Amino acid sequence: MADDSTSGKQLSRIQRRNRQLIMEAALEVFSQNGFRGATLDQVAAESGLSKPNILYYFNGKEEIYVTLLNQLIDSWLAPLEAMDPAGDPLTEITGYIRRKMEMTRQFPRESRLFANEIIQGAPRMKPHLETGVKPLFDAKVALIERWMADGKLAPSDPRHLIISIWATTQHYADFDTQVQVLMPDIDAPAADACTFLLAMFTKTLTPA
Length: 208
What we know:
This protein is mostly helical. It folds into two domains: 5-58, Arc Repressor Mutant, subunit A; 68-205, Tetracycline Repressor, domain 2 (Orthogonal Bundle), CATH 1.10.357.10. 75% of the residues lie in helices and 2% in strands. The protein has ten helices and two strands. It has a two-stranded antiparallel sheet.
């Protein structure tokens, strides 16, 4: 996840490795404890590097956290951006659901990191929500509205549709502990959930 520079200087192989160790450790610590509950000492312990070593690469906890968020937002928007206006509407939306569920399985810590930031009022991500997420959200809402107006999808509110997809798919990462308690007999609840969600949204969106 880490980039290859700090203070505008090219990093050596060891420096890149150390920076990657810090970012990976920070993801683990922040996803579990949130920004307020996380400390540099925890990041140091998780990474196996000293606190002074971490401060060589970053100015402090907030810079590490913001770097993680900046990297996260691009990957988080990619599945929505991939929705093709020229494709079959139902196929495009169910494909989006599949991509979101795959991200839930592969990147649960990133999902929890994003959720923690939003729950806190998005103090460090709000500019990204306004300049990155909102324009893309509005564009996809307009696309789905056009599909519905053309009779290719059953009518509904596209805004709530997208938000419902976010809520139902990310739940399996953000509330994994609850899912494991409620469904202990299921080996892969996210996989079963994907089948259920695809059926549910397909039924909702298929024109009469």
